[in-house]
Design goal:
This protein is α+β, with helices and mostly antiparallel strands and 248 residues long. The chain has a domain at 12-140 and 192-215: Electron Transport, Fmn-binding Protein, Chain A (Pnp Oxidase, Chain A), CATH 2.30.110. The chain is built from 7 helices and 8 strands. The chain has helices at 12-21, 71-83, 112-115, 143-164, 184-191, 216-227, 232-247, and strands spanning 24-30, 39-45, 47-49, 61-67, 92-97, 102-104, 122-137, 194-209. Strands 1, 2, 3, 4, 5, 6, 7 and 8 form an 8-stranded antiparallel beta sheet that branches. A hairpin with an 8-residue loop joins strand 1 and strand 2. The radius of gyration is 21 Å and the shape is globular.
Length: 248
C-alpha cells in the first residue's frame, strides 16, 4: 500500500478498530501451483483476537474460514500437504476497507480552484492491510480442526449478531442467533465443507485518505460539499474529513 505521511494511520488500536468495524476482509495469497492461479483472493469475514486488549502495540491474530471447494482453499491445502505442515510457507495479505469512501469532485476545492484552477479529482477512503503467516485447519479428522472451527464459528456469529446486527438481547433488542440454535449434526456436516484460517499478524499498516493534503479552504469546501449530499456515506466522509483535518 502506498501511504503518504499525511494520510498514514500509525495507531495500532485505530487500525484494529477498523478491522472490527468492517470485518469483511479480502484474503490474498501467492502460491506457486501447476493447477491453480498463482495469485488468488477471497472475501472472508474475520474476527480479531488479542492477548491483551489494552495493548497499544499488539497486532493480534485474524481467524476466519472459507469454503473447501474454493480454488484458493485447494491451492492452500496442496501447499500445506507438500510441505507437510499446516502453516502456509508464503506470506498472506488481508485487506480491510471502510465503506465510508467517495469520489471527490474538484468543484469542492473552493480555495484553489477559483485561484489557479490547478485541481484534479481524487477518491477518499480508509483501509488497513494485515500481513502475516497463516495456520490452516483442513483435516476434518483432526481434533484441532474441529476445535478451531467450533471456536471460530461461535466467535464470528456472536460478533456479527451483536456488533453488526445489534441483536444484544438488551432492552427491546432481540437476542443473538447462536451456533447451538442449529442441530449439532448439521453443524458437523457443514464444518466438513470449510477450512479454518488463523493469521498471526506480523505487519499492520493503514491510511485514512481524507483530504489532509489539501489547503484549509479546500478541506472546508470538501466538508461542506459532502454535507450537501443526501446520503449516509457522504455525511460519513464529511465527518472523517473534519476529524482528520483537526488531527492534522
Amino acid at each position: 500500500m502506498y501511504i503518504r505521511g499525511v494520510h498514514a494511520e500509525r495507531s495500532i488500536p485505530v487500525l484494529r478498530q477498523l478491522i472490527r468495524d468492517y470485518p469483511l476482509g479480502i484474503l490474498t495469497t501467492a502460491i506457486p501451483s501447476t493447477t491453480y492461479p498463482f495469485i488468488q483472493s477471497s472475501h472472508i469475514p474475520f474476527t480479531l483476537h488479542l492477548d491483551d486488549e489494552s495493548s497499544e502495540t499488539e497486532l493480534g491474530r485474524l481467524r476466519g474460514h472459507m469454503a473447501r471447494a474454493n480454488p484458493q482453499s485447494k491451492a492452500i491445502i496442496d501447499a500445506c500437504k507438500a510441505s507437510e505442515t499446516n502453516v502456509l510457507e508464503q506470506e498472506v495479505l488481508v485487506l480491510f476497507t471502510s465503506p465510508v469512501q467517495h469520489y471527490v469532485t474538484p468543484k469542492f476545492y473552493t480555495e484553489t480552484k477559483p485561484d489557479t484552477g490547478k485541481v484534479v479529482p481524487t477518491w477518499n477512503y480508509a483501509a488497513a492491510q494485515a500481513y502475516g503467516k497463516a495456520t490452516i485447519y483442513y483435516d476434518p479428522h483432526s481434533a484441532d480442526f474441529s476445535n478451531f472451527l467450533s471456536m471460530q464459528l461461535h466467535d464470528l456469529s456472536q460478533h456479527s449478531e451483536m456488533s453488526v446486527m445489534g441483536y444484544t438481547g438488551v432492552g427491546e433488542a432481540p437476542g443473538p442467533w447462536k451456533v447451538t440454535d442449529a442441530p449439532e449434526t448439521y453443524i458437523e456436516i457443514m464444518k466438513k465443507a470449510i477450512i479454518g484460517v488463523e493469521i498471526s499478524i506480523e505487519r499492520l499498516e493503514g491510511k485514512f485518505k481524507m483530504s489532509q493534503e489539501l489547503k484549509e479552504g479546500d478541506r472546508e469546501g470538501v466538508v461542506k460539499g459532502f454535507q450537501k449530499i443526501d446520503s449516509e456515506v457522504a455525511r460519513g466522509v464529511a465527518g472523517l474529513v473534519e476529524t482528520r483535518s483537526e488531527k492534522k
